[in-house]
Amino acid sequence: MKLDIQGHSGCDITIVTEDNELHIHKSTHDAGYVPRLVNQANKQIAASKTEYQHIRVPKIFEVVQTPTDATIKMEYIYSKNFVEYFESAGFEQIKYLIGAIKYFIDLEINHSTLQTVPSSILTDKMADVARKVEKNVHLKDDAEAQELVRRSSDVMNGVGDMVMPVGTCHGDLTFSNILFNGNNYYLIDFLDSFIESPLLDIVKIRQDTAYLWSTLMYHKPFDKVRLSIISEKIDTAIDEYFTEKYDWYRRYYMPLQLMNFLRILQYGHDDKVIAYLKRVIAGQLAILNNSKNA
Ligand SMILES: Nc1ncnc2c1ncn2[C@@H]1O[C@H](COP(=O)(O)OP(=O)(O)O)[C@@H](O)[C@H]1O
Ligand SMILES: [Mg+2]
User: How far is it, in rounded angstroms, from Cα 216 to Cα 83?
Assistant: First the structure.
């Protein structure tokens, strides 16, 4: 059997039968993408060495690499995607999921050390975003987008050096990269992050729980009301938990969430997505502005 599945990264994903078992082959034929995919495999292998409650990582059997191609061969997971899972999940299951996310991130925090991330990391990234927006044909003549970028630059200039845990991070912890199998949640699609911090994983999961990003990318019909209610429940639980526990979360979550959406905006090409991103970013700037004046 050989089945093709469409992901977001442009990699080929096929289900293959080997030794009577189903495997996933994730491959790229883009030489520029090879180091990223290999790094993804290495992160996944490293994560699979830690024991998490309810969180698992598909086993990697082999990574095949040439200068122009790479393939990750891994365990196939029978699972539901987040929409299918939330359609049927009851209250108890959502509680498990919340617990598992908190536990996973707390473990990442334990495996990290508090470090000073220099302000230049953020301001350089911001300059890069501004350049990319300026070059993006869908945005360069969009006065509203340009104004949001300008106001965001002011925010990033005001953040300064940041003290936060650095060391471990999934890198793209959105719902679309979690495979749901009963009360076990399999993490896939590990990625480089511009700051290797667990805070960036909280930013990514809240990209979905607070802003419903992955539903925007989901093209089959689903119960939007149910999904919003469940997402909000998860979001409130995560936000309250980390707000109470960590000063760096209270200080830097919001500017880093803004940066997260700016980095999506810079590559925006779909009108509907760009409109959504501008709405989200304007809302974030309003919150940041209010908290500054409070
Ligand atoms: N180990 C796996 N077992 C089962 N399905 C998988 C596995 N890895 C990937 N998939 C399927 O492929 C999709 C895309 O995989 P992903 O690694 O997130 O690719 P992309 O980098 O393109 O986002 C997943 O949403 C899932 O449906
Ligand atoms: Mg993915």
Answer: 12
